[in-house]
Model the fold of this input.
Amino acid sequence: MAAGSSELELFRRRWRAELAGARQGKKRRRRAAEPGGSSSCREPVSGWSSCGGVPLAAPRGGGGEEERREAGYFALARSLLDGRAPGARSRRHHRQPRPGPRPPVQPAAEPEGGGDNDLLGQLIRDLNEINEVPFFDIQLPYELALKIFQYLGRTELGICAQVSRTWKVLAEDEVLWYRLCQQEGYLPDASISDCSCWKLALQDCRAKERTLRTNWKNRIGAVSQLQYELGKVLCDVHSCDGVVIAGYTSGDVRLWDTRTWDYTAPILEPVHGSADPGPQPHVSFVRINSSLAVAAYEDGTVNVWSLMIGREPIHHYQHNQRIQALALGLEGAVIASASGFQVKVESPDDRGYWQTIAQFEIQKLVNFLHLVPDVVGSPVTIAAAEDMVYLLKAEESGKVLHSVYGLPVTCLDVSPSEAAFGVKGFGWLLNETNKILLYNLETGQCLTKLGSSLGDFTCVNLQNSPPWMLVTGNKDRRVRVYDLRRSKSLCSLYAHHLGVSAVQMDDWKIVSGGEEGLVCVWDQRMGTKLWEMHARHPVRHIWFNTHSLITANIPDEKNPRGASIMDDDLTAHRRHRGIIYAYEFSVDQLARESVLPICRSSYDEVTGYNYNIGLAVPYDNILVT
Done:
């Protein structure tokens, strides 16, 4: 750096000397051009004034315009020598110089060789080849300047783009806007070469997000019913990323993919489907993730299907008693099931063969069962059995996480590092009200106690909630949102007349379902209800993402009175079956999928109770003669 500074200072001194010599030579030529050697005339003779072989001024035809232009050239050169950016103020300053003596300039010999080797030409060539970014009084390499700009947001980059042309090029670099897209969660699977302008891509994504939020608030979208009449009464529903799985009292398990609106999804066939005579056992639980679908039956059978292979199960195992709880890992292939006092964990080995990797014997019957997500190594299971909560890890003995005699657990949910569950209290008389307890899974310590309500907490959602937040539903008909950092309630919404049965939230909205069958969508920050939808049975399942919503109304009575004995006559108890709703708020699918489901039928079924228009003769087969 010291050597570079000395060379730059030497260059400036030589250039100043050149400029001073050019001025003196021009004055001498003016005096020589005057008649009689007098210096009173100001008009120059024809010719070019030069500095070191470089033309500095064109011959003037008369007047002071060329003289002012020449003074501007010298002002520009002097500002460059002083390390300042040339501007209007500096030009005015040099047009009207302040009185006073100037500092002496050391004379230097003029360069030889004509215009090819002069300093001014070399400066112009250097400016043309420069690849560094000016940061006021220093020069930075482009890569280092780009690294600094990576810490700026959208607003700051827009401000920097207005500083200069160089900063505009830097602030609109594709690397910066691609990084912003990834940080804000847009196009996570795309690479930087997939788009020619990532700034426009980010603007389009944000515009779609605003439109989606408007559609959510105003209930603008397509609503469809996912029904399977041959399945009789709906038993359980689960969903993952828009893929819905449903189990029925007929023993059938059905899939729907709402991402592509494929209503011809296959029926997953059980192992005991065709071999065993008589009616099939009811489906007790169904679970699904990105690669597997699992169903548990009342006779203790568990079937596992792969979503990539087809309808036939890839694995099944048997419990001796009725299954009371079922859990499937969020990612990967890990299944946990509870029957009686036994908890079993199944997973495939490296060769793909399924095996029991852990089996636990506990003291009480399991009510709730969850697998901890994002666990490296052996899977971890959280089981709530009456008034006890267990932490079960493979290759280790079961650990009691919480136990208070006479205070049963009413709901449970887990995140990668914490577990939240509701505990029923003794009441106000003994100063033991119903609370939500939050435990750290690594230390096994209680982090905080939330709420104080007379009603039982019926549902809690920790895994899908924003960071440091938790949403709960209660029998006192209220939905509560808690801040885990302050252990206080942020808002309390009077939601449902018969208690809250399911709830989920994101950064701005809450969706809750009640025992009376009402689905409510709330604006969390305003604390107001946006809209609601009603069905006959209690809401047992709610799942949503940015553009879709899945709700399931599942009846409590699986064998309702008044149902027909004949298996083929299902119209008598249509009201008792339950229903699944799929809401789509996406901008891309509104125009195409707003058509009613009755108009999207495939016309390939002839049964009269499925609302199919093509009852006997499909429209596609009608020939006009």
